[in-house]
Amino acid sequence: MADFSTAAKEAFAQVKDDVVVYHTLELRHSTFFTPEKESAPIRVVRDYNSLKATLEADAPVDANSQVRFDPVGFDIRPPRRRPEENPSIDIQIDNILPYIGEYLDNAVATDEEVPVRYRMYSGTTADFPAAVPEYVVEMQLTTVVAEGQILRATCQMADLVNRPFPNRYYTADTAPYLFNAPATDE
Q: How far apart, in whole angstroms, are the C-alpha atoms of residue 168 and residue 176?
């Protein structure tokens, strides 16, 4: 089996040169509000320019809406493969925007979790802002450390090992031919 870097190189070699990939993060918490007291998730894109893109239909906030992602430099380290623990992702955000630190300070003062949603958009510049993310991962922020203008965070992913695939259970009623049982008429 090919490793990630080999697979990534192969995939990148097959992509047209006019396709752009945008990595985005969305952090949500009940204490994140605009001055007008509207819910305001932190949305950032790893780019030099802001990105307006459409969220997926099952997005927790602003589903199917066009939203803006602020440009911020960040890096994501993929999860390690260890059978004894749930996968975690390390995120480093450089030159954090002033409001991000304030938002996270408010969130830390509560016992609520901070959900983080990673989205990957791709397409040509012409098809934005209508683009919908191709890849979405939901995580929970577990640790945050600020060092000057750099924010380091760890996010815990869902327990994917013990999750049913493809996210449903098969029974004699839903998949009768797997159990050598005739289908029931409904």
A: 15
For 8, the 3-state DSSP assignment is helix
CA distance 98 to 107: 15
Please check the confidence at residue 34 and state whether its pLDDT lies above 60: yes
Q: Which helix (H) or strand (E) holds 98?
A: helix 98-108
What is the rounded CA–CA span in Å between residue 110 and residue 140? 15
Q: Which residues contact 93 (CB under 8 A, 6 or more apart)?
A: 44, 72, 73, 74, 100, 150, 151, 153
Can you name the CATH fold of 18-159?
Pnp Oxidase; Chain A (2.30.110)
Radius of gyration of the chain (CA): 20
b/e per residue, 61-86, with b = 16+ CB within 10 A? beeeeebebbebebebeebeeeeeee
| Average pLDDT for the chain | 76
The identity of residue 158, as a single letter, is A
Q: In the prediction, which pLDDT does 8 show?
A: 60
Point out which residues pair with 136 in neighbouring strands: 119
